[in-house]
Amino acid sequence: MEQTISPAAQIIVSLIPVVGIVCGATVIFFALLWRHRETKLKIMNNTYEPLKFNLPVFSLLSGLFLTAVGLVLSVMFFWIHGVSWAALGGLVPFAIGVSLLVFYRLNPDSKKKTGNEN
């Protein structure tokens, strides 16, 4: 038996992702607007403190995570599929992780804060 879906049901099913994307974009827009207004009021009241982002620690942590995940994925993809395009699923995060670790090692800010002079 072959079942056919009515055109009205096809339209409703095709609108569900569109409505979800619009709702998500609306929530993100209002969250960013609220954050902007909050920051603006803090600046007007002289209570604003800019966020401090520690780039060397971020590059070390994300580099370690991406290198470990990429290494495990690469080994598994090579073991299961051999040399194929699937191996890029592990090699890409591995390469990004290694590059972040190299950046951490070569970054002059990380040497100043940790006291390493190598």
Describe the secondary structure blueprint for this structure.
Blueprint: H1 7-44, H2 55-81, H3 88-106, H4 108-114
Helix pairs in contact: 2-3
Provide a descriptive summary of the structure in words.
It is a single chain. By secondary structure, this protein is mainly α. The protein folds into two domains: 51 residues; 60 residues. The chain has four helices and no strands. It is flat, with a radius of gyration of 24 Å.
Jot down its keywords.
single chain; 118 residues; mainly alpha; 2 domains; 4 helices; 0% strand
Query: What would the average pLDDT be, to the nearest integer?
Result: 89
Give Rg in angstroms: 24 Å
The total strand number stands at 0
Low-confidence runs (pLDDT<50, min 5 residues)? none
SSE order, one letter for each helix or strand? HHHH
Structure summarized in a few sentences:
The chain is mainly α and 118 residues long. It has helices spanning 7-44, 55-81, 88-106, 108-114.
